Amino acid sequence: MRVLFAGTPAVAVPSLDALVKAGFNVVAVLTRPDAPVGRKRVLTPSPVAQRAAELGIDVIRAARVDAEAIAAVSAVQPDVAAIVAYGGLVPPAALGIPRHGWVNLHFSLLPAWRGAAPVQRSVMAGDDVTGAVTFQLEEGLDTGPVFGTLTEAVRLQDTAGDLLERLSRSGAVLLAQTLSAIEAGKASPQPQAGDVSLAPKLTLEDGHINWSHPALAINRQSRGVTPEPGAWTLLDGQRVKLEPVRLRPDIAGVAPGSVALQGKSVVVGTGSHAVELTRVQPAGKKMMAAADWARGMASLEGVVFE
Hints:
26% helix
């Protein structure tokens, strides 16, 4: 079966590898164009493009699936298109090109968390269990019938990055199994059922900590926005980046946003009990242990995050 693979970031690479390993004829990869990376803004191929080059697979670069991209996809005559975090919408004109349509690997238990940031929103919401599904792509936002499902427990200290890394690997197996079932004529997608929730793309503001919120909500937020866009706060008008904070229910009486030293721990007050800072990156400096940051301050008295 001739497969077009559409994907861009590193989390899509395990799926590409799984399809190749399973023996599918991946005739081309559709990915977003090279993008500037690092402080020097070096133009760099996407992780999927890099892996495709290593595998000797032709690459179609397109910021969106426009007329030119549609023509390129049509030219490779795919039987099915597998899509994992491509980063753009597939218009109706492209949906009908493969005879088996487009199969999307999505990192949530649909219809929960439809949208661009399902794992991040799941962690921020405090879900105990999430997962991944393969479904038939259609015009609606992640609304198509589901081929297969897997579940994954959300661990207490999971960041969105941790959880997504695990789901990218287990999901790759699910995607290969789904395409095998389609090829064998045994696939039977079922309509989605359950409560719908949306997972819009995260913005920088999603990482801004509101210290009047309860400690548990702040912990979940800081884990959900890690690694991107990252948790942060303001100190004297300057943005300070934070790695995920730890819950400290044993420490109370610290005002929301106030920073204090408790033994060897640097803590911040919230709307409930305190949280402990782990690593901190002040403006213009490197990420460092919170204790090292505190030692570099003249005093923590009167230090208040906003």
